[in-house]
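Lecture 7 notes: from sequence to structure.
We start with the chain below.
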Amino acid sequence: MKLRVAVLYGGRSGEHEVSVRSARAVIDAMDPAKYEPLGFFISKEGKWSPRPILPEPGAQPGIDVVFPVLHGTFGEDGTVQGLLELAGLPYVGAGVMASSVAMDKEMTKRVCKERLLPVVDYVTVTRGAADPAAICAALPFPMFVKPANLGSSVGISKAHNPAELEAAIALASEYDSKVIVERGIVGREFECSVLGNEAPMASLPCEILPSREFYDYEDKYELGQARTELPAKLAPGKTEELRRLAVECVRALECEGMARVDFLLESATGRLYINEINTIPGFTAISMYPKMWEHSGIPFPALIDRLVELALERHRRREATRFTR
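Predicted structure tokens for the same chain:
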């Protein structure tokens, strides 16, 4: 009997269009002999079609497992994961706490620092309360300015001087009330895919070669000029260090199922820094999460199989937990 997989996509996020493209790729990769995909589209206004999932156990008898392909806010941040927990449905990817912490770039950095994992120097400011002079005293130019809770490089700017810093903070503040300002790293960018629940494993990493000054939204999804190097051209020892840090980051945040960890390699020092973690990475034609696994020996359809297995495995484990006396 086929598994009925509810694929959630769209959503109230600046990454709505990316989610639609990712969902199409996920559905196309599903083995029709094993799965019956059920599309659940969420509009930019938050309207569900054909119907919403109800936060009540047993209210969705036609769904065996949920595959959230929602990027960014109201999808990757623990909100939908909480809904699915209330509904008692197995679902692919990280749980409520890990999704929420991983979505918040500051909280991710805090957890990584507590585990002695390397992160770039940064300061956090809130909307309407930023002090550019204090930031300039704390960090050298160039700086990267980012909304704390968004992905796909939406709202991110590189600031080379105080005027650009102010403009960058204003832009990032349109997308979040909390803004991260980071020391700019001169070097190389890498990504690494992680797969698993209690025993996560890392793929071979890839290098991102932007066509612009940095890997922004346009470079990722519109221009089509950025290049990737897979596998990344790194010394064997540095490759293993990167893969180890990817797994340690996933473990620190207690992520399950899937994640993509992004890194910066500083040219002057040779140091690797964890840049961020994505708990629902892209699955579009240019997305590297499935490509890295394919290069590591797991083709896209087999990756879908494994992600569904991991979701069901976690759900069985959770069902053994008592929630009442």
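Points to note: Residues 300-319 form the longest helix (20 residues). The chain has a mean pLDDT of 93.
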